[in-house]
Amino acid sequence: MFYSFFKKYFSKKERFKTSILFCLLIGMIVLMQSFGAPLKNEVTLAGVFSFELAKDIEKSTLILNSWNTEAMISAKKSMYFDFLFLCVYSTFMGLLIFKLNRKFKSKKHIVPEIMIGAVFIAAFFDVIENIALLQLIYGNYKQIWSSMAYYFAALKFILLAIAIVYILVGSSILLLRKKHKD
Prior knowledge:
Elements: H1 2-10, H2 14-36, H3 48-52, H4 57-66, H5 69-103, H6 110-137, H7 143-181
């Protein structure tokens, strides 16, 4: 399913599309960093990550109360912009996994399909996390929102870490193969 999507839409002008996605990703990371700068203080040493992983309503409320007006505006911008960012990072990572599998010249697409699926599931978890965090930002102080943000953020980070390791290991294997051929 995912693999065939990448094969259909990214096989032509692949290098150009990869470059565009990479530039978008880097630009968005820089922008997200600028949104995140006002969110760092003595309560939120890790900025928005502290908020995502607060886990309980007391900690979430403490974080929200530690932010001034500028930080709250920045937090809202960060949450809304993350809806676009998750589309870009998941597509870029899925494309890298697709390209790796093609470089291996494998006829079996089960593992790449699972890995691409994991990246898009992580993006879906990011959506749920953002909705929960926005509920808190807009004053709906309930434990359910802190818990949802925490668990979906944790699952998102785990899935993305697995995908990144898959990409790094696959890329390393390809580099070693190329080095041995030379």
